[in-house]
């Protein structure tokens, strides 16, 4: 997994594999970005594989942002993310 931290645009971009092996790095990136930016946009267009752990962390980050009245949006999904969501019956967006 590669993480491109948000610059001035507040977009956090992920590429590669989002899976249990990357859970700690994914959690850390989401947590730190939520602390730094008043609104956060997530770009998953470069994700090549995705599992339930990654989806759970993304949903948890979204709920955390909602609890803080902070804007959180996933703006782009790769086919791998869409497939994982469909397979697990998860609606994201």
Describe this structure in words.
There is one protein chain. The chain has 93 residues and is of the alpha/beta class. It has a single domain, classed as 2-Layer Sandwich (Transcription Regulator spoIIAA). It contains 3 helices and 4 strands. The chain is globular. The model has no long low-confidence stretch (mean pLDDT 92).
Sequence of strands across the biggest β-sheet: 1-2-3-4
Tally of distinct domains: 1
State the end-to-end CA separation. Answer: 21 Å
CATH class: Alpha Beta
| CATH 4th-level superfamily | STAS domain
Helix content: 40-55%
Fraction of residues in β-strands:
25-35%
Gross morphology? globular
For the CA atoms, what is the radius of gyration? 12 Å
**Low-confidence runs of at least 5 consecutive residues:** none
Summed over residues and divided by their number, the pLDDT gives a mean of 92
Q: List how many beta strands DSSP finds.
A: 4
List the helices and strands in order.
EEHEHEH
Biggest beta sheet attributes: 4 strands, mixed
**Assembly status:** single chain
Briefly note the CATH topology name: Transcription Regulator spoIIAA
Query: Count the helices. How many?
Result: 3
CATH architecture designation: 2-Layer Sandwich
Structural class: alpha/beta
What keyword list fits this structure?
about 30% strand; about 90 residues; 3 helices; 4-stranded mixed beta sheet; globular; alpha/beta; Transcription Regulator spoIIAA
């Amino acid at each position: 997994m590669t993480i491109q931290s948000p610059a001035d645009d507040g977009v956090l971009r992920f590429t590669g594999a989002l899976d249990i092996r990357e859970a700690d790095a994914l959690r850390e990136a989401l947590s730190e970005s939520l602390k730094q930016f008043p609104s956060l946009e997530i770009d998953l267009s470069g994700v090549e594989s995705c599992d339930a752990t990654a989806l759970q962390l993304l949903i948890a980050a979204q709920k955390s942002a909602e609890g803080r009245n902070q804007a959180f949006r996933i703006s782009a999904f790769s086919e791998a993310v869409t497939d994982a969501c469909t397979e697990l019956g998860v609606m994201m967006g």
